[in-house]
Specification:
Blueprint (H helix, E strand, L loop, with lengths): L6 H7 L3 H14 L13 H14 L3 E11 L7 E11 L4 E11 L10 E5 L4 E5 L10 E4 L18 H11 L4 E9 L2 E9 L13 E6 L6 E7 L8 E10 L38 E2 L8 H13 L3 E12 L2 E12 L4 E6 L4 E2 L10 E5 L4 E5 L9 E5 L18 H14 L1 E9 L2 E9 L9 E8 L6 E8 L6 E11 L5 H4 L2
Antiparallel strand pairs: 1-2, 1-11, 2-3, 3-4, 4-5, 5-6, 7-8, 8-9, 9-10, 10-11, 12-20, 13-14, 13-24, 14-15, 14-16, 15-17, 17-18, 18-19, 20-21, 21-22, 22-23, 23-24
Amino acid sequence: MKTIIPTARRFWLRPGRQILVCLLGVLAALQVVGAGPTANGGTQAEAVFDRMAAAIAALKDYQAEWSHYSATVGGHPIEGLRTSQGKFLREPARSWQKFVKMQDNFHDPTTPGTQLIYDPRTDEILALLPGIRRLLGVVHIFAEDVKCRWLNGEELKTEALWAWLERWQALKPFAQMSLRQDSWQNKPYSVLRLSYPVESFAGRPEINRLEIWVDPEDHLPRRYQGFVPGREEPVFDYQLTRLEPNVGLRQEDLEFEGLELWNFPARFVANAKGLESLRWQPPEPAADATAPPFSELMEKFSRALAQVRDYRAEMVFSEKYFRLKARGKIRASVIRDPFFFAFELDPDFRINHLHLTSPGGRICFHRREQEVAAEGGGAMRMVGVQTMNVSDPRTFFPFGERLDQLNLFALLDRIQWYAEKGEVATEMVNYHGRVCPRLVLKRKGQPRPAEIQNMAVVLDPKSWLPLRVDYFGNLDPQGFAEVDYLKIETNVGLREADLYF
C-alpha cells in the first residue's frame, strides 16, 4: 500500500530542496527567542503561551475542520492521515466529530463516515458506524479503552483545545520552552517548542518535544506536532484548517447525524457475567524458603527456553484496567522460528469491552502482512475475519502488552530489559501447593499510559518455565493482567499451515 508522506517530508524529498531546507533551518534557528526578557520579567515564549492560554480559556464553544497525521516508529511502522469535522462545547462538556477522509498504509477498521461523541458524564466514546454497520446502533466504548486512542496514544476524548491546554500546562513546569517565528500556509505564526525528558520502555521511542503553532492575531493554536528523539519528522501533526470560535453551540447541536433512521442504540457487552468482583490476588509468600539469586533463576529460565522450538499452552488470562475487564481460558500455539502464534479463546471467555479477543474466537499472526487476524465466535463470526497491523496500539491489551508479545520467547526479552534498565529481586511463594521462586521486576520512573510498569514471574522449579506471569502499571493503581499457565507442552511439532487462517 502506498505510504503516506506528510507535506514537510514530500518537500524534503524533492530534488535540490535539501540545501534550501538546511539554509532555512539555519535562518529559523537564528530566530529562536526563548531567552529574551519581556516587560513583565518573563520570556517572550512565556508571554505567547500566556496569551494562548487566555484565548483558549475564553472559548465557550467552537466548530472546526482538521487533519490529523499519526505514525508509529520502529519495528513495523504504520501511519495514517485522518480528515475530520467536529463541534466542541465546553460547558456542559461534549464533543462530536465525523471522519471525512482517511488514508493509511495499513488496514484500519475505522472508515470515513464514522461519527464519535464524547460524553464526559459517563466518560465514554459513543460511536455510530457508517453503512450496514449502522445496524449495530450506538456502540458505547469506555474512554480508557485502547481503541479510543490514535496511533501514538493521543486520546480521542482530548481533541478539544481545552484538553490540549490542560496537557501543555501540566508539561510546562518540566519542559524547556522556546519560541521561533515561522510561516505555514503563507501566514506567519509564533511556534512554541516544549522539550522535556522521557523514559523509553523496551526501546520504544517516546515523544519528547511538542511544537505549537499560535496565530498571532487571535492567539489560538492552529497546529500541534509531536516529535521523538532521532527523527526530524513529526510522529503526529494536528492541523486546524478551519476554526469558528464561540458560534453559540447547544448540547442538542452535538448529536449523531441520521440517527433518527436507526433509533435503537445498543451497549456492547459480551458475556461479562462475574467480572464485577475481579481482583488481583497475590501469591502467598513462602516464609521459610530462601530464594535463589536473580542471575541463577534467569540462567535456568534461559537454558530451559533455549530447548523449546515450539509449544502449546493452556492458560487462564485475567485483566482489569479501570472499567475494562476480561477473564477466561486461552489455548496458545507458538512457534519460535519463523515466529508464529495462534490463540483460541474458550466460548465462556468473559469480557466487557470490544477487543480482538472475543468469546469462542480465534486469532493468528499473518507474518508477510505483519497483521493480526481475528475471527469472532458465535454471532460475531458473521462479521468475518478482521485484520489489524501488529504495531497498531488499538490491538494491544489495555495493560500495554501486544498480542504477539504474549508468549514465552518475548517474556524472556522483557525480563532481560528489566535486568538492564529496571530493578529486580527474587522471593519464594506458595503456588497451588508448591514452593516456587518468583522474579519481581520493577520499572524506574512514573507509570505511563498504555505501557507496562512492573512485572512478576513465578517459575516452575522442575521445568524452569513460567507458571504465572503478572503485569502491573499504566495509570490504574489496581490494574493488572495475570496469565496462569495450566499446561505447557513443548516441541510438539507445530506447523504454521495447520494453524493459519
